[in-house]
Amino acid sequence: MAAATLLACDWGTTNLRAWTLDRQGAVVAEKDFPLGVSKLAPGEAAKRFAAEVRPALDAEGLPAILCGMIGSNLGWTAAPYADCPAGLADLARNLTAVADNVRIVPGLRCEGIAGSPDVMRGEETQLLGWLAQHPDRRAGRHVVCHPGTHAKWVLIEDGRIARFVTAMTGELFAVMNAHSVLKSDAPATDDTAFDEGLAAAGDGDALAARLFTARARVVGGKADAGSTPSYLSGLLIGAEVASVPGLLGEPPGQVSLLGDAVLCALYRKALTRNGVAVEVFDGEAAAIAGLFALGAPT
Fold it and tell me: pLDDT digits over 155-202, tens only?
């Protein structure tokens, strides 16, 4: 087995995923830690990284590169945002050193809708890793969707992230499923109800009115209450897919989905239903490629 030369970490709100990588960027070892930044007290990240993460991966002497919410004001330190358009070289120039041989990837900021900025932190590393995986992707125009709690729709032009739009679809689903009149403990696994939700999403406008159909179909019709989470999921994803990509400009004819396979499959169904061509790519592999491209020893 090749020797590890880099410790790479995707350190988010709820979890820390860490890998040691060899000189070619291949994974030598990997481990998950329940050390999300939401669970850490101020100043705790540095101590636990040194005491737990490095020893667990036999990485005490390796340079380390970290991305995600660890670079927010909730994490180790606030790594300043880099402005779009931005590519790999721009982020590499703006890494934040937080300890000996430890650097944090900056988030990205762009001009958002309604005159406010939009931001991402962590997704930029996956996106640039996706570009790094295949050099031909660095030419031309690509629309990439990163589904999640805060889904990102990203326009990439000639190897640089030009702009993006965030949709709080995952968080909205979680809040409504737990705290609204639509709350339910049922799993969101009803494919038929999901498809009904996609149909009810229409072109994504008047979402507040469309959402009430999730309740009315049960109390005023014959739908089973246990199907509500799946219907709600389809409605929210369908509305996002129908309305958000156009905020980047002309609605795309093809979208690359980057992230968790299960969630990407739901977005793929919604996009395909709207006549959009789709390719799906593994988010973890892209994150590793991005971390390696930004942090590989020279």
Answer: 999 999 999 999 999 999 999 999 999 999 999 999 999 999 999 999
- Buried residues in 81-98 as b, exposed as e (16+ CB within 10 A): bbebbbbbebbeebbbeb
- Domain of 128, in residue numbers: 119-286
Evaluate the omega torsion of the peptide bond into residue 297 and state whether it is cis, within 30 degrees of 0. Answer: no
What CATH number is attached to the domain comprising 125?
A: 3.30.420.310
Taken in order 90, 151, 98, 282, the sign of the CA dihedral is: negative
Q: Which residue bears the tokens 């958000």?
A: 244
What are the CA-CA distances from residue 266 to residues 11, 144, 260, 278 (Å)?
A: 25, 15, 10, 12
- What's the CA gap between 257 and 255, in Å, rounded? 6
Place of tokens 């999921």: 233
274, part of any domain: yes
Give the Cα separation of 85 and 108 in Å (integer).
9
CB atoms within 10 A of CB 71: 27
On average, the pLDDT of the chain sits at 96
Give the predicted TM-score (pTM) of the model. 0.95
What's the CA dihedral at 15, 72, 52, 149 to 10 degrees?
0
C-alpha 26/C-alpha 32 separation (Å) is: 17
pLDDT digits (tens, 9 = 90+) for 264-285: 999 999 999 999 999 999 999 9
Report the domain count for the chain: 1
List the chain residues with pLDDT less than 70: 298
Report pLDDT for 298.
66
The token pair that represents 140 in the structure block: 């031309």
